[in-house]
Every structure is written in structure tokens, then in C-alpha cells.
Amino acid sequence: MSELRSFYPPIEPFESGMLDVGDGHQVYWERVGTRGAKPAVFLHGGPGGGCNATQRRVFDPAKYDVILFDQRGCGRSTPHAELEANTTWHLVADIERLREMMGVDKWLVFGGSWGSTLALAYAETHPEHVSELVLRGIFALRRWELQWYYQHGASLMHPDKFEPFREHIPAAERADLISAYRKRLVSPDRATRVAAAKIWSLWEGSTITLMPDQGMVDAFSDEDFAIAFARIENHYFVHEGWMEDGQLIDNAGKLKGIPGVIIHGRYDMATPMQNAWDLHKAWREADFRIVEGAGHALSEPGILHELISATDRFAD
Known about the structure:
Elements: E1 15-22, E2 25-33, E3 38-43, E4 64-69, H1 88-102, E5 107-112, H2 114-125, E6 130-136, H3 143-150, H4 154-157, H5 159-167, H6 177-185, H7 190-205, H8 214-221, H9 223-238, H10 247-250, E7 260-265, H11 273-282, E8 287-291, H12 301-315
Parallel strand pairs: 3-4, 3-5, 5-6, 6-7, 7-8
Antiparallel strand pairs: 1-2, 2-4
Helix pairs in contact: 1-2, 6-9, 7-8, 7-9
């Protein structure tokens, strides 16, 4: 384990701000590393998760100039937990605005979990502006993937954790849990929204690491985090990402010529290994790394090792 790569030291942004992206949304962004070095953008998960200080540390600060941002409605972006004008394609347009603001023609795009979904959507829309792709915990947002995690699949591996998620919904509505949670997450009653949000968020926070991680559980249980995370995530899933089913895998041919790495934990409960395998088969040029003894989270030692190895390799 001592040979595994780990985080670079903590780093503070050298620049940050709020970008008016229209539709009443202000997006928080920050820039870390060395101004003018290799440009990159970090796409966080969820959707609705927000970026954090730890995520800054997967890039060599001497070799990279990195933008991280809180996607619409979450983190420090405003308005908080807003669902209007908040779709995959709004976010793709926001990434382009940030690239233009940074003044670069191409940049490395780094995304994990929902961030991998957004990275694929962006790269398949603007391949000419992507120098490399580093993707973790592949999530193609297909119907079966949503069913696996929120209806029946991961529930078989974590029945003790899934039971509170299921039991929060009356028996008559349990045939479609995502839709049932939608009703509660958009309820005019704040207490109803908060109760549903905390349970939705806790299900994910307690199942994305291979081994139990109380710190992760606590973070996902925070009320402010949970309300944005659950509302936005559920909003995207109810609408299936505003994409055709299987669109991201079907359009992987648009990635031809873009160097990339696909990194996936063998025992990922949130996004099954099949996702990464399907992308690998559709995008053969990418380096494919299966991490044994790992789940879904960026913080899993084997996954972190592969991610930093990839950013180091592309920096050089």
C-alpha cells in the first residue's frame, strides 16, 4: 500500500469568482495550480454534489492550471437547490463558458461518477476542445443503471441500508421509488423535502465506499448538502439526463483521437463495472484500469492511485 500514489498537499485557489450563466444562475468557480500551466477542468459528482478542497489535490499544482466549479444549484452556486434551467445541456454550456473565460482552446476533462457522465456529454459535444479525458466510476445514465441503484440490484448487497430508503415511501408507491421521491423532494413543505433528501442522500453516502466510512456518511447527512444533492440528483434521474437511453455509449465514436483513461472499482455498488466495460468496448483507444478491492469513491486508495497516475502521465 505504501507504493500507491496519494493526494498532493492541500492547496488554496489563486483565483475564484461567480460566473453569471443566465437563467438566474450564478456558478461558483475556483482556479488552482500554476497559472498558464496545462489547463484542466474538474467535474464533480452527484449531480448536486459540489466541489471541495480535497478534489483540488489530484493534480500536480506545478504542472496544472485547474478550474473546479459547483454545478448549477449546489455548493456555493446560487440559487441553492434550484431545479429550473438545470439540465445536462445547461451544464455542458456552462463548461464551455468557463473554458472561454480561462482563454484556452483545449483542456483535460476530469470527471468521476456523475462527473464522468457530464464529461462524456461535454466531450461528445465539443471533442475539438478536449485534450484528454480522465474518467472514474463510469455512469452512463441508462435506465437499467438507475433501476440497479434505486430500485433493485444494489439493494441485494446492502439490504440493511436500502430498507430505510424503501420504507420511507408508502407501499403503494414503491414500484417506482425515483418518482415517489420526486413528489416529496419538490413538496411545498420544507420538512417533507428535508426528510426525503436526507434519506436519499444517506443511501448513497453509505454505499459508495467498499468499506464503511463514517466521515462520508456524516458529509452526506448534512442538511444543506442533502437538500441540494437529493433534489438535483433526483431531478436529473426523473428526466433521464435529457438524453436518449444509451446515448453516451452509442456516441462514444465521437471520442476517437482523444487520449483517455477509464478507471473503475471492481466492487462499485453505485455504478456497476458493466458501465466501464461497455464504454471500454465502445472506446478502445482509452486505457482501461479495473481496480480490484475498490468501490466507487475517489478516495478509495487504488482508485486514487490510478487517477493521480493518469493526471501525472498527461501532464508530461
